[in-house]
Predict the structure.
Amino acid sequence: MMRNLLLATGATAVAVAIAVGITTSGAMSQGPQTPSCGTFKVRQDKRVDGRLFVKGTYKLNAFGISCAKVIGKYGLFDQFLSQKSTTPLPLPWKSLTGAIGAPKFSAAPGVGFRAQRISD
């Protein structure tokens, strides 16, 4: 009886470990797959393509495009923030409004960047 209880407990622990592993690995694949390009300070609340970027520090991650094109005083993120809130993004850029998590911008499949607010 004790042996059956130990086997059942062990099997449950293995099942839970597998379920947690699957859930964790799936959640991790949703986030950035590349190292951060660095941070960018948004000095005042701004709207870009209808999306609000609250004043604060943002971590930028690029995919399929160099960090140099995304970050910095003349990078894409700064250009987008510098536009009037009613001005559409320059072609071929679009805001991925349906994306889960941090705001993302894309120029083509596999090309773009995300901006995640990390502090005030």
In short: Residues 51 and 97 are 8 Å apart (CA to CA). The helical segments are 2-28, 67-70, 76-82.
